[in-house]
Amino acid sequence: MPRMPGMRSELAVALSVLRQAKGWDQDELAAASGVGGSYLAKIEQGLREAPAGTLLAILGALGVDLATVDRQVALVRRVRAGAVAAAADVAAERRQLERSLLAGLGGAVAPAAGLPLAESRRRAPGLWARLVRYPHPARRALVAEAGEFQDAGFCELLCEKSVEAAGGSAKRALRLAELAVLAGDRVPGAEGWRRRVEGYCRMHLSSALRVGGTLPAAGEELARAAELWQAGAGDDPGLLNEARVLQIEASLRRERRELPRALALLDRALAIDRWGETPSLLIGKAKALEELGDFAGSISLLRQAAPLLDGEREPRKLFLVHLNLAINLCHLGLHQDAALGLPEVRALARRLGNRLDDLRVGWLEAKVAAGLGWTEEAVAGFEQLRAGFEQEKIAYDVALVTLELAELHAALGRTAEVKALARRAARIFEQQEVHREAQRALDLVRQAADEERATAKLLRAVISYLYRARHDPQLRFETTS
Fold this sequence. Notes:
Number of helices: 24
Largest sheet: none
Distance between the termini: 76 Å
């Protein structure tokens, strides 16, 4: 019998009923299955089909097999063949159909005894609430010794906490990832499953190391994580977030300037995503395109990501979208358009309350001021930024901001200021032991400044190069005439 317009598929109804029979709302099933909440809602509404991997993850969380689902689908058809199908109102059809199915379902939904991740995900927030009360050394001891913390769902939650922490504190992100690895290495069950979980945790450890700027260690950890992740693939029915794993590798590849490889990984992740990672993947892809110089392409992806985000639940991602959108507009010389987005960027940064985010916003404001010709405001902004980065002990950024100040003074013909700033930036970069090619570019600037011939054009070329060469010692600096 054909469905009425707007009527859901039999599978969509069956999945909704099975969830209700277990006593879960959609958020609980999303947390237990690893399927993104908005994606799950669309599946139950019949707006999206459930791929095989997604369906298995949902059924695993509910503790039912395909035979149970087949019986439910058949029951949906039988009920619809009766009086319910004649209902003129689709909403009424839905309510009556679900009441009929739930009444006859009985005990079809059993606990997911064979899939501990479903229940351990439900327990994880309580375990975190207990652990977070302790200082870090005590947390390590508890995770190492207490079996209840050596739990796959808790490992997964620790990884999420690490990702959340990365925006404000690389150190905190690293500590949380290390706790996840400590627990992941002790997860009970099949050896393959333990390797899969540990690989997932070590991927997040690699990510935290990358955020902290220790790229060699991040690369070593990524290789170890990938080996474990692949070794345990046969014992994971698609419950752990593979799109996140691909995204982490892509981020490291991007930092290493392996941009085509990073883009390929992000495209793979977008193709398989069922965990709600798509906005983050679009943001990551936009950043890679920005670094390739495709600023318009980056803007397009960021505008795709924005409506997919829930500003209340994901303010940090929304902040990154608006921040990076404004930065790309600056790259295109559209500083007036970038200025229009500044109020939203500032408001989101205030809400997040992270010192580093405040500095990023200050940097954007100074760039916009410089692009609009508000030179004195830009100089004041960069001076404040330099002090902020010095306080945070982020030397490389101190040096970059110092050169940007020198560029502004060069445009005004202030040769004495340019000379002092160029020398100061060069000293900082020397202390950072930047690679030989970067040092060559800095020597060129310092020599030109000493001879009072350092132009704004030369400084802009060196600044652009140093941004791109930060993690790419093979990138050559091409002098400009």
